[in-house]
Automatic annotation (TrEMBL):
The lineage of its organism: Bacteria, Pseudomonadati, Bacteroidota, Chitinophagia, Chitinophagales. This is dTDP-4-dehydrorhamnose 3,5-epimerase. Pathway: Carbohydrate biosynthesis; dTDP-L-rhamnose biosynthesis. It comes from Filimonas zeae. PANTHER family: DTDP-6-DEOXY-D-GLUCOSE-3,5 EPIMERASE (PTHR21047), THYMIDINE DIPHOSPHO-4-KETO-RHAMNOSE 3,5-EPIMERASE (PTHR21047:SF2). The active site is at 61 (proton acceptor), 131 (proton donor). The gene is wbcA.
Length: 179
C-alpha cells in the first residue's frame, strides 16, 4: 500500500497494490502495520457496501460527535467520482473539497477522517462501493450537506438521488458541525 496525503488534513488516498495471475486478482485492503505507520485507525466497527446504478449520487454524509467516525472507502466493481468536503469549522481547509476517481482498475481507496462529509457519483451500472467505519451508524448523529451546494460541479446531467439526500441543508459557512 502507498499512502498519499491530500490538501485536506485527515483525507488520504491509498494506492492498493493488486496481485493478478491466471486465476484472477487479489487486493489487500487493510493492513494493521501500514495503517499504524500512517497514524490511521485500522480497527473498524462496521462494514457495508452499496450497489448503485449509473448517475446515482450518494451523499454528502457524515456523523457528528460522539459517534463521528473515520471511513475507508473503495470500489469493488465499477467506477465512481468520490467527493470529500471539509466541514470542520476550525480547519484551514473548511469548505474545501477533493474529488478522486476510484474504480476497479486503479484500485485506489480513500481514508476519510472525522469532520469530513463524503459522497460519490456512480459512473457505471451496478457499481459496488465498500465502506468501513470506526464507529457504528447512529441515527441521531447522522448528518448531510446538500450535494450541489458547496461548489463542486458534478459531471452528470440528470443525477439520481434519494429523497433524504435531496433534503439536506445547503452548505453554509455559518453552520457548525465540528468545532
Amino acid at each position: 500500500m502507498k499512502f498519499e496525503p491530500t490538501d485536506i488534513a485527515g483525507l488520504t488516498v491509498i494506492h492498493y497494490q493488486p496481485f493478478a495471475d491466471a486465476r484472477g486478482g487479489f487486493v489487500k485492503t487493510i493492513h494493521r502495520e501500514s495503517f499504524e505507520q500512517e497514524g490511521l485507525e485500522w480497527q473498524f466497527a462496521e462494514s457495508y457496501f452499496s450497489i448503485s446504478a449509473r448517475d446515482v449520487i450518494r451523499g454528502m454524509h457524515f456523523q457528528v460527535p460522539p459517534h463521528d467516525h473515520d471511513k475507508l472507502v473503495h470500489v469493488v466493481k465499477g467506477s465512481i467520482i468520490d467527493v470529500v468536503l471539509d466541514i470542520r469549522n476550525d480547519a484551514p481547509t473548511y469548505g474545501s473539497w477533493v474529488a478522486t476517481l476510484l474504480n476497479d482498475e486503479n484500485r485506489k481507496a480513500l481514508y476519510i477522517g472525522k469532520g469530513l462529509a463524503h459522497g460519490f457519483l456512480s459512473l457505471e451500472p451496478d457499481t459496488i462501493v465498500e465502506y468501513h467505519t470506526t464507529t457504528q451508524q447512529h441515527k441521531a448523529c447522522e448528518g448531510g450537506v446538500l450535494w450541489n451546494s458547496f461548489g463542486y460541479e458534478w459531471p452528470v446531467a440528470a443525477p439520481v438521488l434519494s429523497e433524504r439526500d435531496k433534503g439536506f441543508a445547503a452548505f453554509s459557512h455559518a453552520q457548525t458541525w465540528f468545532a
